[in-house]
Every structure is written in C-alpha cells, then in structure tokens.
Design a protein that fits this description.
Elements: E1 7-10, E2 15-23, E3 34-40, E4 48-51, E5 59-61, H1 65-74, H2 86-98, H3 102-121, H4 128-146, H5 153-167
Antiparallel strand pairs: 1-2, 1-5, 2-3, 3-4
Helix pairs in contact: 2-4, 3-4, 4-5
C-alpha cells in the first residue's frame, strides 16, 4: 500500500503524488473501501480517487534512481515492438502504454523513432499514429525519470538523450 507523499505511476495519468489514503463519504460510497487520492504531476487541476484494491488500472511505485540509471545502461539491449500491420501496431502501442512498464515505453519509443527515420529516408512523412504514441511514451518515460533524478521533465529528457548518445 502506498502512503501519503509517495510518487506513483497510475495508468495513462502518468506520475501522481499520493495526497491521501482514506475511505470515501458520500451517497452510494462503500464506507469500508479505502481510496488513494492521487494528484497527477503533469495535469494541473486534476484529482483522482482510486480504490487501493483496484485491479483495473495499474498503479506502481515510481522507479528508483538506480533503476533509472540501469534503464539507461540497458537502452541498446531493449528490442523494438516491430509489427508490419498498422492496425496491429496501434494495438501493440496502446498495450505498451497501458502496461505502465518503462521498458515497454522504451520499446515503443525506439520503434516509433526507427519507423519515422526509415520513412523520412524514403521521402515519406512520419505517420500521425507513430508520432502520437511516440510523444505519449516520451511523456510517460521522461515524466517518471524526472522524479528519481530530481529534475524537471524537460531536464530528464535532455539527460536521457545525452546519455543514450554516449552509450552508442
């Protein structure tokens, strides 16, 4: 169970801070069920009420600094999500995002980036789908990396890109 002040990754909402852990009062509320009140860090004005026992959406701890550095080190070994069929690729991209798994996000980023580069080399534009999912995966990954590295999301992105270039 998470505690007040913890940073978590919650589904497609990205990094959230646990503001409260409590039962809910109100009409129709199950007085025995405990909820997290989550504040998304990168969506101002939002507040989420999530049952602590919910299995519908993944909620996990933000990675540690050690895990963040390990992810950087393993970048080259993480494979892509290559799929030829456009409809199937979009479903795989959605699954990667919903997984709340940093390695899945890296796979998506690498796949989209490589596809975009390949299309550009052939004189074609990047697909809207690849661009959209690339940006969502980058937002999730860099938003999370910012917490253990004690940086802004933009600084985490720059740090990550700089270190990937160093590694190869």
């Amino acid at each position: 169970m998470f505690e007040v002040g913890d940073y978590v990754v919650h589904g497609n909402n990205g990094v959230c801070k646990v503001e409260a852990v409590q039962t809910m009062d109100g009409i129709g509320a199950d007085k025995k069920r405990v909820y997290y009140t989550l504040i998304p860090l990168y969506s101002s004005g939002s507040k989420l009420f999530v049952p602590t026992d919910s299995k519908k959406v993944i909620t996990r701890s933000v990675m540690t600094k050690k895990e963040a550095k390990k992810l950087l080190e393993e970048w080259d070994e993480i494979e892509t999500l290559w799929v030829e069929n456009d409809k199937k690729r979009e479903e795989i991209y959605k699954d990667a995002l919903r997984s709340c798994d940093c390695r899945q996000w890296v796979k998506l980023i690498k796949t989209s980036y490589q596809r975009n580069q390949s299309r550009i080399e052939k004189g074609k534009k990047a697909t809207t789908s690849d661009e959209r999912y690339l940006h969502m995966a980058e937002d999730n990954l860099f938003g999370e990396l910012a917490i253990p590295l004690q940086m802004t999301r933009g600084e985490a992105e720059s740090y990550f890109i700089k270190n990937i270039r160093k590694s190869g």
